Amino acid sequence: MDRRLSTLGKAIACDERGAVLVEVTVVMTIMLVFLLGSIEFLFVFYQRNAAAKAVQIGVRLAAVSDPVASGLNGLSAAVLGPRVPEGSTMPDFVVTCAPLSSPTMPQP
Predict the structure, then answer these.
(1) In degrees rounded to 5, what are phi and psi of residue 44?
(2) Which of 18, 35, 98, 107 is most buried by its number of CB atoms within 10 A?
(3) pTM over the 0.70 mark
(4) DSSP states of the chain as a string?
(5) pLDDT value at position 56?
């Protein structure tokens, strides 16, 4: 029995029929990891480039357009009046909203 196991062990150890399959499995796993890593890196690079381009377009739009809505210029002049010259800092003020004394309902 011992002799048969010894002979079987030598036969299995010397058999190289499955060696190529094992080598291909190891190499393909490594190559697949590198391929998927490269794809992931390119996706991250694409996202970074898209974000940078969006910021560039936003900054350009802010640089060439009027930064204040047209209605706000007249509103601030009406609220502050001639007391505050144009270009100075905004003074502190409080806006208080009070409810109506008697709410009115529309008549049908």
Answers:
(1) -65, -40
(2) 35
(3) no
(4) -HHHHHHHHHHHHH--TTHHHHHHHHHHHHHHHHHHHHHHHHHHHHHHHHHHHHHHHHHHHHHHS-SS-HHHHHHHHHHHGGGS-TTSPPPP--------SS------
(5) 93
